[in-house]
Amino acid sequence: MKRMLLSLMVMAFTCSCLAQNTSNDKAISQSATYTLKGIFPTSLNGKKVTLYAHLDDPRTTESTVVRDGKFILTGPLESPSLARLVVSGGLFVENVTFVLEEGETTFTYVNNSLLVKGGKRTTIYLTHEETTKKLFNDQDRYLKYLASFLKKNNDNIIGAHFYSTFGGGPLTERERAELLATASEEFLNYPLFKEYQERKKAMERQMAGVTFTDFELPDKDGKIHKLSEYVGKGQYVFVNFWNGKIPNDRSEMLNMRAVYEKYHEKGFDIVSVSTEKDRNSWLKAINEMSLPWHQLHDAQGAAGVFSQVYGGNSSLTLFIEPDSIITANNLSGSLLEDKLEDVFGILTPGSGVLFNDWKSFDDILYMAKRDNKMVFLACNDPSSEGTQMMNGKEFPKKEAGNFFNNKFVCWQIDATDKQNIELVYKYDINEAPTYLLLDNNGNHLGRVVGGTDITRFIWMVQDELQDDEGLAWYQRQFNDGERDKQFLYDYLELAEEYYMKNTAKKIAAALLDGKNAEQVACDKELFEVFKRGHFMLNDKWFTLLYQEREAVQRHQGEGAVREMNELWKEGTKSCLLFKDGSYQGIDANFLQVYKQTMKEYGVPQADILRNERWVLILNASYSRNYSEMVKLLKNDLKQGGTLFNDPSVIDALQELMSNCQNPKVLKTVEKWIAGT
Fold first, then answer.
1. In a 3-state reduction of DSSP, which class is residue 45?
2. In b/e form, how buried is each residue of 77-100, taking b as 16+ CB within 10 angstroms?
3. Burial level of 209, CB count in 10 A (0-12/13-18/19+)?
4. Strands 81-89 and 268-274
5. What does the DSSP 8-state code read for residue 67?
6. What is the pLDDT of residue 672?
7. Do the beta carbons of residue 223 and residue 257 sit within 8 Å?
């Protein structure tokens, strides 16, 4: 089953050794060493402790055994690296990620969890991981936090790791350039960052609007050919990379044969590059299928031209114009034929996607039934960059109109508008833009979340419609009563991929069915299901687990209880009143009722006061009462400063910096921000 992860394009989560940082930290000396110490209960005596110096790379391991509740591992350190410590034995396995760096790092086994205390880099990494967990359900705040995090950490491997993992994240091109211009050697020499930069350069070579990059490979007779022998000779050239052992690739080659026969005499040519390492198997495949166009073979397989020159991932095609410019990539099936029909003038070029202006969803379904079409429903957030890009740049393209207008009745709604809440709830929309593919009865056929270039977007839509075991299949199976454990886990993963929180909640409830709160509190796997269910304050499972929070703390750690308490803090947002986008103030009565509810549930008094301070700080920020805001923050600082690392408070501080005119206040706030 093919799947595409959207929003932020995430690269492979791999790690390697790191070079020195010469900006903020002392250079790693040749005699630098690391020391890992463990403080464990004696019940873990005899368990094996394995250090993976570069995460899961088995070539970089050291190991020892727990004795008398302790262990120690020490060795030379060439450079800091993201590492993993695994404690195992029999069915018991615990692991934790940290930064292997100079000096001592301690591991304590408490409440069935490995707690880590290490150097500066480990602290940065663990704090970042904890913060991202808290912001998991708030995409806007998460993106703001990530941008701030990357800018602050361009001097260490943690920043380099997440910059590479998220492809620069939410930063603009200018911000990325500024960040890299001042980055430390430790950041720039991080292997994953280097790999990301090389991959980025390679991927840019396949983008529309660039001149093709030449390469040379042998044909079936062993004769070497350059791509430039076929490109730039007055023809449209289609380059596809394929593997004869993959059924879909073989099927696509047969489709291409029909297209080739139809358009070759008009000026269309194909160059196929095999990524199958076995030359004999490749020769057998092209002979069996009688493929009449140019066939080249790369003995390096997918690691050769496919990835090194053009940054290919799972599949890749290039459509090259007679002037040697690439104008499309990843065309296949009907997309390729549509492109050729447009090129050779058989179709009248379209004018982009035609969104109907009908007000009623029932009318849209009626039109779809009348015209025997599907429904393409765009659920937008007008302020989001994804919506603006798709509506302003991609959907107006002829290629988009040729594809969607023929197959769909197209409609779009503002998912942030209350009048559309019924549709948003019905189809579980929690991220915008989300694009629904529906049959003419309104049943789910698939969905795409986020925006991208129209060629890739159409490919993703086709992938959804062709996937026999995709989202629609899982929904039908679940509604028909399928409750196999592995099925539910797979469905839960799919729901999370599409930001379907209500669906995830139903699946999690099914996985927890028949269990009691104590069982869930004590079992790591069940508690993880509970967390992935996104249960809120008014949900049964949250109520039950919160009443068992002492057991949760014993078995899942203090962090798990803190996360549950965070929901109480988020709930206080309901007392902040907005109307037509304008802030109206605090609903004081609601706040008092809410505080009383927290008391009845046993929320600690310190947390109740913290939540109240948090709301008052936000109120002061929205009201632009900066003197009151500073006063409240000073009070919070006296209480331990628990709100100073909260992204919403940091945002409020930054707004204060932009608007406050009092030099004394500004100086105080600058210190606070520097401290965060």
1. coil
2. bebbbbbbbbbeeeeeebeebbbb
3. exposed
4. unpaired
5. B
6. 66
7. no
